[in-house]
Amino acid sequence: MKILKLIFLCFAMLQFSNAFSQTITLAVEATYPKDQAEFVYEPLKNWLEKKTGLTVEIESADNYYFYWRSARNNQPDFTLDASHVAAFRMQEKNYQPLARVQEDVSYHLISNYEPAAGQSIDEFLVGNRVVTLPNPNMGSVLFDEWFTDLFLQPQKIVTALSWEDVIEQVFAQSADAAIIPSSLSELYPNFARLKESKKYPGLTFLASPNVSPQLKESFKNAILSIGEDDESYDILAELNSDGFVEVNPENYKDLAEILTKLMY
Question: In the chain, which stretches have pLDDT less than 70?
């Protein structure tokens, strides 16, 4: 009888060990080239592995289009998404929100120059080049919402692979204006701010419905503990955030429609 109990105990310990030594995938928003993304998310990867005992494999798509295609077709264990992509996964894929950066994000139309007195923004930018990230990044989505008059429309440039590349194109004058997130706009106060979107929730962590409740809880606790000590400061610096908070799903209501409209 004692031998059977010992065997059962060893089996249970093995199962517990396997649960917390497995490899999990974390898909991240494609706002960096792949090699740069590995560097940017290395502190986050190391922190999550230390706190959960999991081996974390970062998945970064080559560009925003492939990131969106992957969101439609694949099911990674965990994700770090822009809010509209997070809303899509929550609505269409039954992903569960775990935490989000505490800052909301808005998007700014910026330029090195300002319209002349009495000149509208559409008139000012007609025929000019406005750079942002490709569809369905919110910068590109907002371009399509803001510029609907075919006769007063700037040229949308979506060749950039990162927000830094967007800014560099404006500085190099290969673009006349850009649509960028507020966290980046704040770093360049000398740009003229021509238009600003409403605020959206910031980057959001989600868990697949296939992940066990125990792993979800372990992952969530690890995320919410970021910022509690100096060791995790690099994570917040790379994500332009002061910390993570719980998610209110109501703040994501209707955001999924931004993407579901693109599917039909």
Answer: 1-21, 263-264
Quote the pLDDT of residue 21. Answer: 58
Distance CA 221, CA 206 (A): 13
- Number of domains the chain is built from: 2
Q: Is 132 helix (H, G, I), strand (E, B) or coil?
A: coil
CA geometry: angle at 171 spanning 165 and 175, to 5°? 75
Using the structure block, give the residue that is written with the tokens 């209110």.
248
Q: Which pair of tokens denotes residue 10?
A: 């060893």
**CATH number, domain containing residue 62:** 3.40.190.10
Same domain, 174 and 246: no
pLDDT value of position 19: 47
Q: For position 13, what pLDDT does the model report?
A: 46
Do 98 and 228 fall into the same domain?
yes
Please say whether the beta carbons of 162 and 132 come within 8 A.
no
Both 121 and 172 in one domain: the answer is yes
The residue among 94, 65, 97 whose CA lies nearest residue 81 is 97
| CA distances for 23 relative to 77, 81, 105, 252, angstroms | 10, 20, 31, 29
Residue 231 has what pLDDT?
Answer: 83
The tokens of 217 are what? Answer: 């809880």
Q: Compute the residue count for the chain.
A: 264
For residue 7, what pLDDT is reported? 47
Domain range for 214: 23-104+201-263
**What pTM value is reported for the model?**
0.88
